[in-house]
């Protein structure tokens, strides 16, 4: 379960983000390609490369350090959930990060394997992964997700993914891994439905995070979420305050109701996980926000938003307005 893919040497001082199709629709063709890729790539080859990526990740300093960071966040998050929902942070708390890495899970294992006794009740949602069959960065991100779910004892059957650029080959590979691919572009508008949910959204457009927050705009729902994705602090620093408040009001409003831990920056995976943080929403902070914070619940539409970095659901966009 690790990543042995050699990335290109880092050449610039400023971190360079992957602009996947979920973020920059016009740049799909610019996605970094695996030099080994050819038109005849099949699911067996892709599965093998994912497994190789998992192996490399497992023996990297980044994996142990990132897992420690996530462990700290989930441990704090679990303190505010009922005892029944604490299985995930407790499982992580029992990890021995300095121990010899466990062997990678074979990619031909039975999909949706039965979780171990006492496994958690969490579910996982992944948006904007990109073309992992041809992109080394996306493949490493998928490898990390698979490793993290195993450590957290989240069954693969409780993970769903969506990216409008997924090929039929990639959908088949994800299904073979026991994961579900959503059939519709939700634009990130998914409610946790009362269940603790891990959202894995690396290098996604700001609108996707804004939509996700809108769909869970209550102290109860937000307190059940953990988001691994773009640093919210970084979003605030890069966007003008008036733009953030106008176009992405839910991201702007939640800044004082969350806690954020940055994933470590290490050269081998800098292109893969740059500007990535773990976010959670302490119930005490959420309950302390001004009452009018929760009164505004207008659905985002982005009609006047320039450079929108997500792919819209065309069917919904074309629906006549009442």
Explain the overall architecture.
Helix content is 36%, strand content 10%. With 322 residues, it is an alpha/beta fold. The protein has a single domain, classed as 3-Layer(aba) Sandwich (Rossmann fold), CATH 3.40.50. A seven-stranded mixed beta sheet has the order 3-2-1-4-5-7-6. It starts with 42 loop residues before the first helix and ends in a 5-residue tail after the last helix. The relative contact order is 0.16. The N terminus and C terminus are likely disordered.
Proportion in helices: 25-40%
Rounded radius of gyration (Å): 19 Å
Strand order of the largest sheet: 3-2-1-4-5-7-6
In CATH, what is the class? Alpha Beta
- Please name the CATH architecture: 3-Layer(aba) Sandwich
Query: Approximately what portion of the residues adopt beta-strand conformation?
Result: 5-15%
Distance between the termini: 50 Å
Mean pLDDT across every amino acid position: 79
Summary, kept brief:
By secondary structure, the chain is of the alpha/beta class.
List keywords for this structure.
322 residues; Rossmann fold; 14 helices; 7 strands; disordered C terminus
List the helices and strands and how they pair.
Blueprint: H1 43-58, H2 61-78, H3 87-93, E1 123-127, H4 136-151, E2 159-162, H5 168-176, E3 180-181, E4 197-201, H6 206-215, H7 219-222, E5 225-230, H8 232-238, H9 241-247, H10 249-253, E6 259-262, H11 270-273, E7 276-280, H12 283-287, H13 292-295, H14 314-317
Parallel strand pairs: 1-2, 1-4, 2-3, 4-5
Antiparallel strand pairs: 5-7, 6-7
């Amino acid at each position: 379960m690790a990543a042995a893919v050699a990335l290109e040497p880092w050449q610039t001082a400023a971190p360079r983000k992957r602009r996947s199709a979920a973020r920059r629709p016009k740049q799909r063709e610019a996605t970094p390609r695996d030099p080994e890729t050819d038109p005849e790539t099949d699911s067996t080859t892709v599965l093998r490369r994912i497994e190789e990526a998992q192996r490399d990740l497992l023996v990297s300093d980044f994996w142990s350090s990132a897992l420690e960071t996530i462990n700290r966040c989930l441990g704090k998050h679990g303190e505010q959930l009922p005892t029944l929902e604490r299985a995930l942070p407790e499982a992580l708390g029992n990890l021995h990060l300095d121990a010899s890495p466990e062997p990678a899970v074979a990619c031909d294992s039975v999909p949706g394997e039965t979780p171990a006794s006492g496994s958690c009740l969490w579910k996982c949602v992944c948006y904007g992964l990109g073309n992992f069959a041809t992109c080394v960065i996306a493949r490493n991100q998928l490898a990390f997700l698979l490793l993290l779910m195993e450590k957290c004892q989240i069954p693969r059957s409780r993970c769903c993914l969506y990216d409008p650029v997924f090929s039929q080959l990639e959908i088949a590979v994800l299904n073979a891994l026991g994961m579900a691919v959503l059939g519709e572009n939700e634009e990130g508008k998914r409610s946790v439905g009362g269940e603790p949910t891990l959202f894995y959204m690396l290098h996604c457009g700001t609108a996707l995070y804004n939509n996700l927050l809108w769909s869970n705009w209550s102290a109860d729902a937000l307190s059940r979420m953990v988001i691994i994705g773009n640093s919210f602090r970084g979003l605030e620093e890069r966007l003008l305050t008036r733009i953030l408040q106008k176009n992405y009001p839910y991201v702007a409003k939640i800044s004082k109701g969350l806690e954020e831990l940055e994933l470590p920056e290490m050269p081998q995976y800098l292109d893969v996980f740059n500007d990535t943080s773990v976010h959670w929403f302490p119930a005490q902070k959420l309950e302390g926000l001004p009452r009018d914070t929760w009164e505004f619940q207008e659905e985002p539409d982005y009609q006047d938003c320039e450079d929108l970095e997500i792919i819209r659901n065309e069917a919904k966009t074309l629906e006549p307005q009442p």
